[in-house]
Amino acid sequence: MDQPRQPGEDTYGTDFQIGSMPEIGLDFEQVAEEYSDISDSVRSLHKNMGGFIETIESDVVGTGIEGAEDTVESYSEFERALQQFDTEITYLMEILRGNTTPDSLEEFDDIETACDRLCFAAEQFQSDCLRLAQSFSQAGATDAAENLQTLAVNFGAINTSINESFFDNQLLTSLKAYYFPNSIVENIPEIVEALDAENLERRQNSYGMLMMAAEEKSAAVAPYADQIADNLSTASPGEQQNLLGTLNVLQSEGETLGRDVRSDALDLVDAADPSVALYASLLLAREATTAEQAQIITTRIESLLTKDIETEEWANATFVLYELAQSHPDAVEHVTPTVAEFLTVESPSVQENVIELLGEIGATEYREDIKTVRTNTTHDDVISAADTALEMLPEETEAAPNNTSREIRSDDEESIIEEIEDAFEEL
Length: 427
Hints:
Blueprint: H1 28-60, H2 68-96, H3 106-138, H4 142-167, H5 171-179, H6 188-193, H7 200-216, H8 218-221, H9 225-230, H10 237-252, H11 259-266, H12 274-285, H13 291-305, H14 311-325, H15 329-333, H16 336-340, H17 348-360, H18 367-376, H19 380-392, H20 413-425
């Protein structure tokens, strides 16, 4: 059985921070608050319907009015479906709020079944209402017919609301992908196709799911790399993060990216959104980047480090420089003073990245600073990085005095000459 993925359990495989969850277009906790109104609205409609149905059952059923019995029966099924829907949606809200973790895919199947059943029951009741309204109209009960028609319209809204909230935007599929990423691998072609969807939420959720699928099985996503890159220029910053994140995952898994992908990424190095710029820079830092491109990346990263950005972005920026230093140390060396200042940042990720970078480029002048960090930290990753860097950075030693040479001062020249002349006279 598929084991659920725990919240915050990312499989990016690097020190590049991507947060606790890939962005899928919606804040799950916010969704939970908004969607809790769906059950409330349906229950309110159910409550208001009670007396009306009782009237039909007591005053109309048995009178020969066609459709009365079917309407009462379909409403009974709607009530049963609503009870099941309430149970499943309450559980879904707990998942969205992060209060519980699903144990299996079947739990999402149960939610989908409850939604489908309620939609079907509402649709059937709507149809029976319209048929009964027609019977009332034919019998001359115009007001009753109009009321039933209005009621039928309201029940039609139930279907629209449920489909838009759970299916059209791929919310349930996204949750499946998050907790059980292997379950969506076979749906990758459909997910890629939805990257161009008109529905914004569906499009954004597809971006997030594609990144999860890449983490699970990169080889299945790699053939779509060029198509993914084609969407970069028109995507929103949040979407660009997911698209670039997917490409970075493919790259970290050893998949080969084409020249066009690198070109599209280079255009985003100067993106206004820091996260987008960092994702694009990381992608290029790991590729066969030219010296000119390396300088462009370094300049952009240095500008981000001097701005008031999130600590997570500092960690990402320093990691990009470390990756870039593997192939272009010369491009990174001139920003060493700026980067070294981040040794004092109280973030293990930042400190680890900075220490590894200083070791990589041979910045011996910061050896003592690295030793200070190592002494004061309790984080194993930082300690390990410091030990490795200190081995790469030899201690500076002062030149030993040369005792075999005699210092000659200008005021001794005359006496020395006299000594030499006396030595010759003795011969």
